[in-house]
UniProtKB/TrEMBL annotation:
The keyword Signal applies. The keyword Signal applies. It holds the Pfam family SBP_bac_8. Residues 323-340 have a biased composition (Low complexity). The lineage of its organism: Bacteria, Bacillati, Bacillota, Bacilli, Bacillales. This is Extracellular solute-binding protein.
Length: 496
């Protein structure tokens, strides 16, 4: 299942914040067998691109593409309002029909929806005839794109998101605990976390396992473990919720025991980004938000954490930014200025590495945490197909992948251009395949968020002792079923 909030926030931060050092490349003229013209540098034309923000577009893609094809007139249609809309998928469909962009920058969900409605151009023929090398991409990226397109390829993604298990090597050495390894089960990781001497409060606080920087709900970890085991808590087609089962209860019990003991961090309602500060650089244009939850591993107070590739950049941020970096507190106090007060950096120079995210022994080579950050597609009704295809080739090409290796926090979909991580086990992000069963599960709009909120509230009650686990599961099952019924009815009504 997609983590909408985490993907969206990370996507927009870096789309606006990071300018990739781009250089020009050449293309050959002529006409391929698909009927699309391969553009020469001197060819004239126009290209309308739907992208989140015009400034970010030109920094990341537009300036370099314009240098390659100076006679192609670019126009950017801002989709910022779409991403901020209550129902982004529907708003994007409306924008495509009304504005008729040639090329589109989409989320994975928008891509699937627009492909299903016949609004995107089928790339299979042109990829084959143009000999665009798909074999150099992570297999699961192409698999996900085709699965979301009902077997057809309607877009390309230059990057993807997944998670890995970060660990503090010095902390493991200090307590004589063996390092985690690739392919460990969730049970093994939680057992490792429980071996550390828990100290919940104070400057010497210590956790075995802290949650992701994007985690806001105590149910997230339970869901991740269940999905790794192939469990589902709801079936939209059958219209049933099935959380009150022995398998789910066992997972709830293990995680709740960790919350109670303190070996696993209990995420705050505001997640990793609140109550902390913002690191700024590049003249104030780059901002990395961090808070108490996300800082636990970065400040050396947690032995392990499960997170995405962006954490790699945050761990070395102070060193990378040097004197240009500044830490600002954004706590809401009467004494704080609008820009926040400078404070001492909370980050430590941690001796860290990564291994694959925990898996289930029955499916040791798959993960349910993989998703596509951004998908670039062509409007099926575009009258500028040749220019749009040249743009997609550039955005997803080897040259840009190579230049992005050291400048982007995202994981390159091209496996030959993995991030430069100073000798860290970057392969941990690439070893596992996408778990299609989990990732392609569809639930009614809004249901997953409502269910997570319900489950999270009941989990907290069990942790505090105000209710039992059996009673909590019963309530989650009963109220969750009502939520699914209501969400399904609403979705059906919207389709009529």
């Amino acid at each position: 299942m997609l983590n909408k909030l985490g993907k969206k926030s990370g996507l927009l931060i870096w789309a606006l914040a990071l300018a990739v050092a781009l250089s020009a490349c050449t293309s050959s003229g002529g006409k391929d067998k698909s009927g699309l013209n391969s553009l020469d540098r001197e060819d004239k034309g126009s290209l309308k691109v739907a992208y989140f923000n015009e400034e970010a577009f030109y920094m990341q893609y537009g300036n370099a593409f314009q240098a390659m094809f100076p006679n192609i007139q670019l126009e950017v249609i801002s989709t910022e309002s779409v991403f901020n809309a209550e129902v982004p998928v529907a708003e994007m469909e409306k924008l495509v029909k009304e504005q008729q962009p040639d090329a589109l920058y989409l989320t994975e969900e928008q891509y699937a929806e627009l492909a299903g409605k016949g609004l995107l151009y089928d790339l299979d023929a042109v990829v084959k005839q143009d000999e665009f090398d798909l074999d150099s991409f992570h297999p699961s990226v192409i698999e996900l794109l085709k699965a979301r397109g009902a077997g057809k390829l309607y877009g390309l993604s230059p990057s993807f998101s997944t998670q890995a298990l970060y660990y503090n090597k010095d902390m493991f050495d200090k307590y004589g605990i063996p390092y985690p390894t690739d392919g460990m089960s969730w049970e093994e990781v939680m057992q490792l976390a429980a071996r550390f001497p828990v100290k919940k409060d104070g400057d010497d606080a210590l956790l075995g396992l802290s949650q992701s920087t994007q985690t806001t709900n105590p149910f997230d970890l339970i869901r991740a473990i269940g999905e790794a085991k192939g469990l589902t808590y709801a079936d939209a087609d059958a219209g049933t919720v099935s959380i009150e089962s022995p398998e789910w209860k066992s997972i709830f019990q293990s995680v709740i025991d960790g919350y109670k003991s303190g070996s696993i961090s209990m995420p705050s309602d505001s997640g990793g980004g609140a109550g902390g500060g913002v690191m700024r650089s590049m003249g104030g244009k780059m901002a990395i938000t961090f808070g108490p939850d996300s800082m636990k591993f970065m400040s050396g107070k947690a032995a392990m954490t499960i997170d995405g590739s962006m954490l790699m950049n945050m761990l070395g941020m102070e060193k990378k930014m040097g004197s240009a970096g500044a830490i600002s507190s954004e706590k809401s106090t009467s004494s704080s200025s609008a820009g926040g007060k400078p404070m001492k950096s909370p980050f430590k120079n941690i001796n860290w590495d990564v291994v694959t995210v925990p898996v289930d022994p029955s499916q040791p080579d798959v993960t349910g945490s993989m998703s596509l950050n951004s998908v670039f597609s062509i409007n099926a009704s575009s009258e500028n197909l040749s220019a749009a295809w040249e743009f997609l080739k550039y955005v997803n090409g080897e040259q840009l992948a190579k230049t992005s290796t050291k400048s982007s926090p995202e994981l390159s979909a091209r496996t030959a251009f993995k991030n430069d991580a100073d000798g860290k086990n970057i392969d941990a992000f690439y070893k596992l395949k996408a778990n299609s069963q989990t990732l392609l599960q569809t639930l009614p709009e809004g249901f997953a968020d409502d269910f997570s909120k319900l489950a999270g509230e009941r989990i907290k009650q069990v942790v505090t002792g105000s209710t039992t686990l059996d009673e909590a599961l019963k309530q989650i099952q009963t109220k969750g079923q009502l939520l699914l019924t209501e969400a399904s009815a609403k979705a059906k009504a919207g389709q009529e």
